[in-house]
Amino acid sequence: MLVVQKFGGTSVGDLDRIKNVANIVKKTKERGNDVVVVVSAMAGETNKLIDFANYFSKTPPQREMDLLVSSGERVTSALLSIALQSMGIEAIALTGRQAGIKTTKDHTKARIMDINPAKMQKHLNEGKVVIVAGFQGISEEGDVTTLGRGGSDLTAVAIAGALGADKCEIYTDVDGIYTTDPRIEPKARKINVISYDEMLELASLGAKVMQSRSVELAKKLGVDIEVKSSFKPEIKGTLITKETPDMEKVLVSGIALDKNQARVSIFGVEDRPGISAEIFSKLADKNINVDMIVQNVGKDNKANLTFTVPETELELTKEVLKEYENKAEAIEYDRDIAKVSVVGVGMKSHSGVAATAFNTLAKENINILMISTSEIKISMVIDEKYGELAVRALHKAYNLDK
């Protein structure tokens, strides 16, 4: 069996933890498996390198930043290889380029274009554990690139697809995906199996265990992912896989809370064909990620438009909308909101899910400001101060603790 294992920053946070990872890899290898390991930088290392760069410039060149921050993963890969070899396990560390990972030239947010697995396969055939520095690749111009947030997960999934791995294990500091954040609801329960689409929704809605780009790629390549803890490797984690008919028996799989959203309301803008296209095209040109959108029915040739953006992109949104300050009656911005979402493929075949959500929030006297739905998701924007209360109430309403 070929197993790809990825270890995040907290799992390799110091030398003792790297030794712990080496023991996990050693046991996997000794069970007769071929093993490819993808590693992140040691926890805090990337931020330290960014601080170094900012000492000289607040806007350092992105090409140089990629070369700088990609070094953290290379340090971890070399240390893990040294640790394994000291235990009598043959191993070799590779950079992204040496592993054959080719990317676009978009520095700090490159996309993987292709992987030539020949070199990794050669070392596997020689019986070695292959350790790849995650988060990075090489552009056609020969420059080092990095893959953005969640880049090492993306590396692991892409390598698993390129090598046709039997299993891709993502090791982190939690032992799986939970029905909601256990820090908010202590009765949150670990999910044994979840579909790609459910995980995609939870990841995009604020669940931080997996980045949505990695899950999207896993779905595209058909790679099963098991999320588990590097501190309790013997405990079974959560399997992320393709949807099966049995999954629809579960009405709701999880509740997500996203506090990093802001609401933008444009009141009394001219109600004419193309006005929404004009505004949202200008936001798209600045790469602003607009999520929920509500437009009311026009009256007296005026319309109201409300939408949400990530809080980090609110200032840029304000700049884009400056030209509409004289074209609308008012523009309001609200940072004090939260988005709470109910996710589950069971919604496809069960009715009343939305009614349960709305009644539950009403019983808690929580006003819903905006609503959006998809086939497997209901999202509601509410006052931020009620976010955690809403999560606990919904978790109980759908019996997710049982």
TrEMBL record:
ACT domain: residues covered: 264-345
The entry's keywords: Amino-acid biosynthesis, ATP-binding, Kinase, Lysine biosynthesis, Nucleotide-binding, Transferase
Biological process, per Gene Ontology: homoserine biosynthetic process; lysine biosynthetic process via diaminopimelate; threonine biosynthetic process
Catalysed reaction equations from the record: L-aspartate + ATP = 4-phospho-L-aspartate + ADP
GO cellular component terms, A-Z: cytosol
EC number in record: 2.7.2.4
Binding site for substrate: T46, E73
Annotated ATP binding sites: K6, F7, G8, G9, T172, D173, Y178, R183, K208, V209
GO function term, MF aspect, one: aspartate kinase activity
SUPFAM superfamilies in alphabetical order: ACT-like, Carbamate kinase-like
Pathway recorded for this protein: Amino-acid biosynthesis; L-lysine biosynthesis via DAP pathway; (S)-tetrahydrodipicolinate from L-aspartate: step 1/4; Amino-acid biosynthesis; L-methionine biosynthesis via de novo pathway; L-homoserine from L-aspartate: step 1/3; Amino-acid biosynthesis; L-threonine biosynthesis; L-threonine from L-aspartate: step 1/5
InterPro entries found in the cross-reference section: AceGlu_kinase-like_sf, ACT-like_dom_sf, ACT_Aspartokinase, ACT_dom, AKii-LysC-BS, Asp/Glu/Uridylate_kinase, Asp_kin_monofn, Asp_kinase
CDD domains named in the record: AAK_AKii-LysC-BS (cd04261), ACT_AK-LysC-DapG-like_2 (cd04923), ACT_AKii-LysC-BS-like_1 (cd04913)
Enzyme class: transferase
Xref: PANTHER family: ASPARTATE KINASE (PTHR21499), ASPARTOKINASE (PTHR21499:SF3)
Protein family (similarity comment): Belongs to the aspartokinase family.
Protein name, entry field: Aspartokinase
